[in-house]
Structure formats: C-alpha cells, structure tokens
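The records we work with from here on pair a chain with its fold. The integers have meaning only within a learned vocabulary of local backbone shapes. A complete example follows; check for yourself that the lines match position by position.

:::
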Amino acid sequence: MIQNLQFYRGTGNNPYDNLAVEAYFLQHCQPGVCIFYLWQNRQTVVIGKNQNAWKECNVDLLEQEGGFLARRPSGGGAVFHDLGNLNFTFVAPLEDYSVDRQLEVIRRAAGRFGLDAQKTGRNDVTIDGRKFSGNAFQKSKGAGCHHGTLLIDVDTTQMAKYLNVSAKKLQSKGVSSVKSRVVNLRELCPSITVENFSQALLESFEEVYGLPIQTLDDKTFDWEEIRKISATFASWTWRLGREMPFSYELEERFPWGGIQLRFDVNNGKVTDTQVYSDAMDTDFVEKIPLCLREQPFSLPGLADALSPLAKIPQYTEMTADLQNFLRNAPQQEKGGDAE
C-alpha cells in the first residue's frame, strides 16, 4: 500500500544524466513509496531498448546539429524530446504499481484544462485520436517504472526531421506522417505551459493517491552512483550496439510491435542473430536469438525452434505471430553489412 508520495524535478537537460536519475530511483525503490519524477531533455531522440538506432533515427544529422541519441532500458518506439516536451516517471514497488492509476494522474492533469485524454493502443495517450503522450514500462528487482512523454509545445518539424518512422507503423495508425499523428497540448489549449502543466500533474498526483507530496532533496542522492549509470547510458556500446554482418534480413509489423530479424549464416547454420523491435516486452525480444542460435537455416525450421517460447503464456500470441510469418516468408538470401 502506498503510504508516501515523493516528487523530484530534474534540474538538467542532459538525457544520460536524467535517465541515470530514473534508474537510480528504480534501483533504490522503497516499500510503500511512489516516486513521481518530472524531467526534460534538450534536442534528443530516445529509442527503445531493442531498437536499431540507425533505422529509427537520422543519427548523423542529429549529432551534427548538437543533439543527443539516447537508448532507454524499456521497450517501445523512438521519441523526440526538446524543451517543449515534459517527461514523467512513476516508480513504485510492484505490489503497488498500477499503470491505470498512474495514467489517471495524466488524465486528470489534462482534465484540469478541459481536455479529455484517453489511453489508446499499446501505449499511447490521446485526445480526439491524436497522440500527446507515449508510454513505456520496465520492471526490475521488485519495482516498476512507468515513464512517458508529454507534448506541450514540441517542434514537430524537428521531430519529423530526426525520426524515421516506418510506413507500416504509420499505416497501422491510419496516418500519413509522424506530424499528423501527434498533437501538442498548446494546440488544444493555448494557455498550457510546461510550468502550469507540471503543477497540474502534482495536484493530480496528490488527488489520485490521497496523500501529500514530499519533495526530494537531491543532496541526499548518491551522485557518484548516478554518474556511473550516466556514463553507461552515454557509451557507444549502449546507444548504438554492435554491428553484425548479415546474410539474410526479414522485417514485419504485428499488433504488438514491429520486428526486424538479421541472420548471419555460415555453412547452412545460423551463427548469429540480431533482433530489433519496438515491442513493449523487451524480455521476449531478447529470448528470440537464444532459440535460433546454431539452428539450420530454414525459415520453417527457425519457426519450429521458437516453440519453447510459445509455452510461456505471456509469449504465446507473439510467438504464434512470428512463427506464422517465418513459415510464409520467402527464403532468399540477402548480402550486406549492418548499417
């Protein structure tokens, strides 16, 4: 049972530091405590844990223009942050972790400005069918993290310039471009600012949980630990990952997310596999290569090799989709190198 509400407002705009503070909260989550964290990044593209950075983002242009590429530990898709965007994070013990309750805080904050926000799809919060908030989730060591964006007054031209959104994803949303899919809250209510929406969120946080907020003093944080976490988030290895030569590539989009499979094949066997995905379930994605390693390279055979995942209840539907796709995909080698 939540007995203590804690709040922290980030003070900097560096994405690696901000993600490190979030990770620090998750690692040090206390029983009966729910932490609410608001933070902002400057000119940043943040990709999901299992996404292909080069495919999702115009990395070179972003960095040439002084921006940041960051990878978060949760699943989901790529998002653009500037100072017109406000990020939120809830951290709570798993026994008290409730996405519905946490989203109610967002809904009520929007409601204070006369806006009717609704959760739609896998992880979006929309108003009249247009997205102003994308959410993602992570669980670790008995605690849960729920974080997301809040588009207050984001430069959508910059967003469209840096993000490479697949045509299939846009088609699945019934829109023609990333700009047409999203909406800034200021477009719907010109009086909204980052500051007054932050205050509305705090009032709604207290209202939903029925408790007063305690503001955290960052002088009590272990900043040496936070700096070490930040260095990991800023590293090439974490942000961009390894490059793998591949001889065969497949890509498809399912209701639960898009997936890109790259196989390195030698002497008729799969010697390595890379899987990129914006699926919310990061564990499922990371288990796929373990099933396919050293298997004979036959797409129907690789589908069969995924059968152990189908026995895990939360993976059954996703595995069936992937197996059906593999069994029906044309098997034609494609030479190339990782981007």
Observations:
- Residues 194-209 form the longest helix (16 residues).
- The two ends are 48 Å apart (CA to CA).
- Residues 4-240 form a domain with the BirA Bifunctional Protein; domain 2 fold (CATH 3.30.930.10).
